[in-house]
Amino acid sequence: MVNVIIKELGNHAPFTFFGAFTGIIIILFSQKLPHNISYNIFYTLHPIHVVLSALVTASMYELHTCKHISGQCFRGKCNLWVLLIIGYVGSVGIATISDSLIPYIGEVLLNLPNREIHIGFIEKWWLVNPLALLGTALACFRPRTKFPHAGHVLLSTWASLFHIIMAIEGSLNWYLYVGIFLFLFLAVWTPCCLSDIVFPLLFVKEDNFFDSQADK
Question: Is the pTM of this model over 0.90?
Answer without folding.
Answer: no
